[in-house]
Amino acid sequence: MDSFTCATGVRMPRILYGTAWKKTETGRLVATAIRQGFRGLDTACQPKHYDEAGVGAGIATALAAGSVTRDDLYLQTKFTSLSGQDPQRIPYDPTAPIPQQVAQSCEVSLRNLRTEWLDCLVLHSPLPTLRQTHEAWQAMETLVDAGKTKQLGISNCYELRELESIYGEARIKPAVLQNRFHADTSYGNDIRAYCRQQDNFLTDGKLVGTYTVPKIDVAISGLFYSRPGPQLSASRVFLNSEVASSLGRNLSANAQTVTINLVTPGTLYGERRNQLDLRLTKNFTVQRLRAGVNFELYNLFNANTVLTENATYRGTTETGWRIPTSIMPPRFIKVSVQLDF
Model's pTM, two decimal places? Predict the structure, then answer.
């Protein structure tokens, strides 16, 4: 499944599998979708329309089969405010302040999806007032800080002024806008134009070229792509004993440690990944036998760009931060022959 890199550094498939209204079939259908190649899943903590626990069951089935790992998947769920919930099945305390509702909803989602983190938490729709919407967004930002989700988004936001207000006030900008677009609303041209003006996307470029050499009939094809480097981050784990005095209390839920982000997500990136691959193809025909010989050369420049690196920061004397944990595979050659009878 083709994907792109958001400004946050998160790889997001271009097509997500939607999980609404599948009821008791949710788990089976999610497992089937993953088996058929889907790597992005969209759901919501909204029992009225979604069986989020069923999504988690489907993911568990796929993981148990060994076809994918958690890192292969993009999991996106939503916080749904009271106006979008079934009054009989609200997944959080309806009397709690909005920030607590957001936090409780996220914890329910993590349990339902059987994961330690989300790839994206989406505000299902703006709340009745801008003040409430900003309050919910600020609560979602704290979940990014806590490592509960990698990025944030908003859906069903059809008023440009609301989107401008959210984007303008946000400390952590929305990386995803999930809307329906219709002909009778001009496909949301004003909103899409606004999104294109913002710098919340990174350039992901790809060039493809093919040339057939005359006389010798050898086809030469090349693929060059330039992708954003890894998002740079830094986090430090503090013991309860280190922060209790400044907080004036122990950490919530008797936690022994707390992880703090030291770099705002989506602000720093590593070296871009530039790679050139070449392929030479020569076809032969002998009576009814057709043969194709392929000579493929990957990573022609033998670049060793860093793909991932250590994000744990333990202090100014710590030398482990930003130590590469994986780099681009070295140049290698592949030769193959295809025979058609």
Answer: 0.61
